[in-house]
Task: inverse folding
C-alpha cells in the first residue's frame, strides 16, 4: 500500500486543520491507518488510528477531545481533523498502515508503508 499525506500548513493557536491520507495499491494488505507525528529532536509518537471497517478508533491522550480521525472507504482516504491546535502540536505528521498480524494499534513498530509526512506549524 502507498500512502500520501497532505493538508499541513501554518495556523495560529486555537485554529484548525484537516489532514488527509490517501491510500493506493494493496489497500487490503492493512486493516487500519494510523497518524503519527514527530517534532524536531523528539521521537515519532502515535496520534490516532482507525480501522477500515467497523467503528474502532484509537487516540493518544493528548489529542482526545481535540482531534478526530475518520475515513472515506470509497476514496480510500483517512482524515485527521485537528481543532484547538496548540504550539506543542507543531510537528511533521505521518500516516502509516498497520501491519497485518500486529496486536496493537498505537505503536510505531506495528505500522509500515509510511507516507512522506506533512508539516503542521502552530504559532502562538
Result:
Amino acid at each position: 500500500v502507498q500512502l500520501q499525506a497532505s493538508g499541513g500548513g501554518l495556523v495560529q493557536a486555537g485554529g484548525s486543520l484537516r489532514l488527509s491520507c490517501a491510500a493506493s495499491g494493496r489497500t487490503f494488505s492493512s486493516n487500519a491507518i494510523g497518524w503519527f507525528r514527530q517534532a524536531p529532536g523528539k521521537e515519532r509518537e502515535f496520534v490516532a488510528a482507525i480501522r477500515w471497517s467497523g467503528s474502532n478508533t484509537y487516540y493518544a491522550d493528548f489529542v482526545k477531545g481535540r482531534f478526530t480521525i475518520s475515513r472515506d472507504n470509497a476514496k480510500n482516504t483517512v482524515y485527521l481533523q485537528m481543532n484547538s491546535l496548540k504550539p506543542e502540536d507543531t510537528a511533521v505528521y505521518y500516516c502509516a498502515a498497520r501491519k497485518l498480524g500486529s496486536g496493537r494499534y498505537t505503536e510505531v513498530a506495528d505500522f509500515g508503508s509510511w507516507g512522506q509526512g506533512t508539516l503542521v506549524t502552530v504559532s502562538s
Q: What stands out?
A: The chain has no helices and eleven strands. The longest strand covers residues 17-24. The two ends are 37 Å apart (CA to CA). The CA atoms of residues 8 and 118 lie 5 Å apart.
